[in-house]
């Protein structure tokens, strides 16, 4: 940590006076911010529902219900009902074409003794940690793209966003050829500088990271767009004041931009974790059971698919799905607890 | 905080999508009432997975329509990789195609779960003679004494070779009566590291691989009743080591290389001299101008117990819950007849199962030694299958990949595989 701090100090030190001590980012602006939460705007509204308004209010409610209904219906039919079904199926042994037998908690009991399942869980967690590394990358790119007077910003934005609107399956196929050990572009480029590449996707030591890199590349566009919007929302006078105090661009990024957009960073990190925990399409396209690196890359959702749709153990697969849900909810809850320590709501 | 809790709700709802997948598909059924002829025009759907065969299938459908103007057949192609997942979901929801292609690993699963219509009535109405198809295939589509599929075509395995690579090493082309020893020595002679050429490709491949070499060594993958694994026999070990020794000696690309670039593509690119492939490959190689005259095929080499290829074939089946049973029966009857077989033979896509129509297929691509495939039928063994074949083929891929890769030695790996496979088979009952 100390080394990192020094680097930052050096980077910003060139401008001259370093604002509030040598404290890490965020702590400087934390003092300026009023206590988080409790915005005054909210409580003022509730007084509006007085007695005289009741007919209008009822009318409002009716129309609100009409507008919500289609979404609600979709939510119930496509989300809530399947969840309930999955819960029910997880207590049964269900045949490939339906027809089920109640087995109580047997599927859940079997989960604990299933070594493969825990391996895939570990793979998924590794994958998630690597996927989070994409966030700093997106932040830096967004900060660079929001540099004033930068030429061709739109072109860069389109370029970074392109992968988001491309089908993951197509992306996976293209990257497979790029990663190819014998004829891939990546190894050809490495060869130019005298480095001998490997079979990136079938070498158990590299496959997971190679796939995670593609995952990062795929999600970079969305993250950058959200960060760009957040950065544009930071009041300009903060930067002006900081500049007057002699803060350079990098100092401004750490002490103003980052704390100001921390809610967006939090939002993105929640989405990124959930996305990574559910990784399936890239694994499905870029590796497969005949890949010698498959044991090191198979994610828990891939294992769920394998059990439920290949091996016809739908009850067991449903139990896996619920475990995935619980893990995701737990991790997300943990993130929400931790955010109190570093996210600033202005 | 309020804004974040909305975010949280959205975020937490996303994973539910996964759960949605799990809940697809329920309900059983399978009424087998007598087919009532329908008045008025009907359209039936025909599910297939190979777009190479689309022209022939369309021609069959058109001729059938000409003979039965009331029935129109609509062909639905689903790529093989998704075919059975899609089919299973559709069948569970009551919406599978009226008539569709079935294969060996899946037929018992569908038959045992009442998804297929028993075909006795179809056979008697169309006056089909089951003796006209290879016996191993008729048996493949029989479950509990009932016929569930009419053999459509068959495939056996042969060894394709690149003539130029043989010429470069002044090696004679494989003969019809060659042996394992001939193959192994040719593979080593043909390997040329400086040119990046491998003598053979030894992927972790069942049908065009160890499903042939294990019976050639006198072993079996699964016993005839489909209840016991044969992987723990010395013969099976011999059949596996046939392949692993090639990888170990560098006469074949490594598993990693073959994962990155499929061995089939390496063969087509002239980087692999000999490649085991099914009879279905002929039409593909015939269609590539650079390959058409550059490659040829030999039968599988004879092992300790002689020349043995695995035989597999597709069957045409009728969905148990079809709403157009009469039309579907008529169509399957037509598909099982000599005329439909003839159309397939002329198209050259596959070897038709109907006796006597194979000649046209052999003649369709005269530059290839296709007779090798047809002659192998006499000694061929049926494709290994049980009620839930997928449960143990998954184990097979998992464990054998480790053996190929050298993580586990072959004898230990095969013993493990047999134990786990027997456990999976025990669950089928």
Secondary-structure map with pairings?
The complex is a heterodimer of chains A (346) and B (429).
Chain A: H1 2-13, H2 27-30, H3 41-46, H4 54-89, E1 92-94, E2 100-102, H5 106-112, H6 115-132, H7 134-145, H8 153-161, H9 168-179, H10 185-192, H11 207-232, H12 236-244, H13 249-260, H14 262-277, H15 281-286, H16 294-297, H17 300-310, H18 314-342
Helix pairs in contact in A: 5-18, 6-11, 6-14, 6-17, 7-11, 8-11, 11-14, 14-18, 17-18
Chain B: H1 2-13, H2 16-22, E1 42-48, H3 54-67, E2 71-77, H4 80-92, E3 99-102, H5 104-112, H6 120-126, H7 135-140, E4 142-143, E5 146-147, E6 150-151, E7 153-154, E8 157-162, H8 163-168, H9 180-190, E9 198-200, H10 206-216, H11 234-248, H12 255-260, H13 263-268, E10 272-278, H14 281-286, H15 289-292, E11 295-299, E12 310-311, E13 315-318, H16 325-335, H17 338-347, E14 351-352, H18 358-364, H19 371-375, E15 381-382, H20 389-404, H21 410-426
Helix pairs in contact in B: 3-17, 6-16, 10-11, 17-18, 20-21
Question: What tags apply to this protein structure?
Answer:
heterodimer, A: 346 residues, mainly alpha, MetI-like fold, two-stranded antiparallel sheet, 2 strands, disordered N terminus, B: 429 residues, D-Maltodextrin-Binding Protein, domain 2, five-stranded mixed sheet, 46% helix
* CATH classification, class level of the domain at 114-342 in chain A: Mainly Alpha
Instruction: Considering residues with a beta carbon less than 8 A from a beta carbon on another chain, report the largest interface and each chain's count.
Output: A-B, 67 and 50 residues
Under CATH, the homologous superfamily of the largest domain in chain B reads: Periplasmic binding protein-like II
Q: CATH superfamily assignment of the domain at 114-342 in chain A?
A: MetI-like
Mean pLDDT of chain B: 89
Overall geometric form of chain B: globular
